Amino acid sequence: MQAIFDHGPLAPCPAPFNLAAYVLARAGTLGLSPALAVISPDGAETWSYARLEAAVLGAARGLQAEGLQAGDRLLMRLGNSVDFPICYLAALAADLVPVPTSSLLTAPEVTQIAEDVAPSLIVAEDGLALPAGAPCPVLSVERLRAMYALAPATYVMGDPDRPGYIIYTSGTSGQPRAVTHAHRAIWARQMMWDYWYGLTEADRLLHAGAFNWTYTLGTGLLDPWTRGATALIPAAGVTPDELPHLLQQHKATIFAAAPGVYRQLLRTPPPPLPDLRHGLSAGEKLPDATRAAWEAATATPVFEAFGMSECSTFVSGSPAHPAPFGTLGYPQEGRRVAVLNEDGPVGIGEPGVLSIASRDPGLMLGYWNAPQETAQRFQGEWFLTGDLVSMGTDGALTYLGRADDMMNAGGIRVSPLEVEDALNAHPAILESAATEVTVKADTTVIAAFYVANDTVTPDELDGFVSGRLARYKVPRIYGQVDALPKGPNGKLLRRRLRQQHEDTLPGSPHQK
Fold first, then answer.
1. CA angle, corner 22, sides to 21 and 27, nearest 5?
2. CATH classification at residue 147
3. Which one of 102, 132, 157 terminates a domain?
4. What is the pLDDT of residues 242-260, one digit of tens each?
């Protein structure tokens, strides 16, 4: 029996189509109903559906007045505020291609992105790094906000397969890759509503992340708005220990967060949460101990999802179909998924590379300006994720690790080559290796090991790479070594380096 799971295709995306128009299709009906509440212990800033759509279409008109044409890229350098999703949807409404980026990126990283996507406009908040060399005009966030009051633009409709937006992910080559998604990608997200979220119009979904994180943008904002629910987002400055009381105060029915947030919230007993039905987790594997502690403390389950920047989440457990213990869950209805080796689908229970059908409407169009790397990921009817899994007889998938050396930093994939390039720029470093290591039962961090022609302290290296990498990519552990482990052909053995480090930890079965 082959490891292929096919729920049958999702209904085709309608045409003509516009992502922003689809997300806000219910705004006219819902009117003054709350679309968004930005919450803090001091209160809430509420945006109705009518106010939200007016701001999006006003900003769309303003962007058009800047002379931008359909298909032009708009680089977003915005922080943790409602301006982030408004700018994103306004660009899409006007048929521009928004490129959202993390506010943590450094000037060299942003410069590389600008050189890659050649934006026609940058919308920027004071204090965030900008590309060197002024590649295009910069629009301040204050000018963007002034556009919200303009007469509404008309949604620009078109081919659902045309480029919609670009997000960045770490590539296996060490260079961040621009993942280009079509407008139709939002159409595919409805498969998550029943097969991960259990999302209804009556829900109040609190996402713990910042506005400018793609996990928050999709799960915390776009999906609730498409469904007609209410999104609850913590205001900038809200701390994890304040979240449980905000869940209680604002009667959240669904809570979404990365596993690390669940761990932080469990440091003190949460208050009663009578309105909460369940939690959602994604970005990295939720440790079993964390799941059990949350369920014991709140009497609510947590449903986990697995995905990637190239296809968002497509495997999950849900209230209607919980994942069997120890598995990622099931392919969502409407997906076609297989486990492959070099000869094709493997048998049930055998390890292989998790792959999703290339016809999936949520799958990327490709990597921007990288046709060769795009072609490597598409193999006939399949897109190869690079993650190793096995499939049970019921279709449930068990995660076995990565087929490459990609690392996970708080739910964001990071290439070791990118970290090593930053380290190797130090004049005293001869060579280096970055890898993800376990520091305790449910926690991993990025570690860097290096060979140098002199003693180089961790503090010195930390300061050096911090000017070249976003903070989440900076190693948390440094170790100077005499040599790095390599195979007979000279290939760096990062996994052996990881094992050597973990064998020295207290409690390791290999420690003497």
1. 70
2. 3.40.50.980
3. 157
4. 999 999 999 999 999 998 8
